[in-house]
Predict the 3D structure of the following.
Amino acid sequence: MGNTRGVSGAIHCPVMVDEVMELLDVKRDGVYVDGTLGMGGHAEVLLKRLGADGRVIGVDKDEEALMFAAQRLQDCRVSFVRDDFSRVGDIVKDCGYDTGVDGILLDLGMSMCQVKDMARGFSFNSDYRLDMRMDNRAPLTAWEVVNRYKMEKIEEILKEYGEETRGAKIARAIVAQRKRRSIDTCRELASLVEDVYGGRGRTHPATQTFQALRIYVNGELAALKGALEGSGAVLRAGGRLCVISYHSLEDRLVKNFFRQEKANGHFRVLTVKPITPSAAESGERNPAARSAKLRGGQKL
Ligand SMILES: C[S@@+](CC[C@H](N)C(=O)[O-])C[C@H]1O[C@@H](n2cnc3c(N)ncnc32)[C@H](O)[C@@H]1O
């Protein structure tokens, strides 16, 4: 399995690869959607398990990620699609698989290459403009939200998508600061939040603020809901849906989706409890995997 270095030189190490492949129960001639192709880490392993007739539809809305994965994989069994995974149903049809697919993988959130590329404006230490878009064609950036939105709306975003208990205080501080001058860079916002907290703890105090803005700017929860529903419609009977989430808001959506689809008789739940990375994986090998939770279901 290969690690990959993106534009920033960062490495993205795919999470729980063996567990994902087992849960997908890969068939050699199957058709699989990797809805979050990223740097192609999971897709690379999936391709090794597929035979000549197997196919992968690799989706990402990030142009850089897609180009990187295409260059890395260079495999005619892969269709590379720049799109939002919430459109999985249409994507599968557009690729010509009218009879559905055997498996779908969603490895949510961002790749390390996105986080570490300072110009993308995701990182606390970035002196670039607050951006946080995964898809650079999208009109809304984090700068717009921080500098143009009403205080009440900023507070709501911080509470809803960051579960930030100091959302009101942070929103007030943002509005007070921008009356003096705009908050342009990630570092400026991170240090403003740090001031509200009065210092740093074990994790950076701006973690929840940044998470909230990223989720809002990229419409992440709505996209996930769309992808879960779309997946249910496009999986063949016996096909499998596997989702790796990295925070409780995502995991709750996935858990509730499987619970409801089980009650409706549409899915069998394959993970009563989420699968988490081994100590070896989330320790030194890949600390970014720490919060990962893998859930899977089988279409009936
Ligand atoms: C954690 S990374 C995936 C890493 C990948 N599994 C690998 O092994 O390299 C998540 C990827 O999903 C993409 N992504 C996030 N939300 C998306 C969406 N709604 N539609 C399409 N791609 C999305 C991001 O741009 C990012 O490249």
